[in-house]
Input
Amino acid sequence: MVVVQTIWHELIAFLGISQIIEICKTGNYKVLLTLNGIFSAISPLIPLLLLIEIGRAIFYKRFKIEDYKMPFFIFVANRFISRFLSIAAVAFCIGVLEKYALLSTNMKWYWFIYGYIVWEFSHFIYHYLGHKVRIFWCLHSTHHAPESMNLSVTYAHFFLEAPYADVIRTSICILMGVNPPLLFLIMFIDGTWGAFIHVGENLIKDGRLGFLNKIILTPSHHRVHHAKNPLYMDTNFCNLLNIWDKVFHTYQDERRDMHIEYGISREVNPNNFFDVYFGELYYLWKDIVKAPGLKNKLLYIVMPPGWSHTGDHKTAKVVKQAFIEEEKAAMAAASQPMPVAASGAA
Output
């Protein structure tokens, strides 16, 4: 009976409908007019879209259990391991840093715009470091390991990534004066959009979303971010506003002539939980052990993925530059006029 109740509570928590159920039980529907009530009504959106996505895939006979199996296992594991770590990290940063804020904000609309721009900057910093520092990539790579894109991928994270991300994002926002109520509102909006942009082609075929593709970061942009194509590596780090990707030249549109290949550059067994979850930590450890000298061992921890003490680097920057040069050479060759054969006398 306890097991059944536990499963039921976990299911309710996953669907995000616990507060809706409570409102229905009490009959106090006026709560829906409050900010918490609005959050309660929106929370089931992503799980509902995930179920619709799976349902459409089954209906059109495109459903593959392997596309959803590993994110599900990771979600279950994280529910047991890290339920309260992220909340504690946010609370700690607020408690320690709020008194050092550069300015004071409130819930006015102009402070909301300011706060969102600051939040997006802090998200860019965390996300950029997650791709450019090897130890942080070990935490982030679990999210990139799935070889298809669908809403279940939003639940695939290493258990330490959320606390690490929230320490960076919360610290920057609090120091820049984004007060906690405003920060929590932005976190909710950005978290909902951040989950939605993982939507797969089973639900939305063209992730560009029409004119929105030129204004904000859409599922199309995030599909690019999850790609292992050389041109797409380490791009589109922002979540909703693309301002910082454009400032730091990491913005990349999806090309219609390039098929997206999802996953990470090393060979991964997508059906092996330990390879998906701990694989990058294992390979980092192997590199550290074989590296000569303390300096090289430490460099493997902080340098980008693909860095080598031998100088034979295979970082995203190196791989992308090689691809761009090859593509330019191919285009230049294709643009050369064909030589005209001389005609002989009859």
User: Anything to note?
Assistant: Residues 84-327 form one domain. The two ends are 98 Å apart (CA to CA). The mean pLDDT is 89.
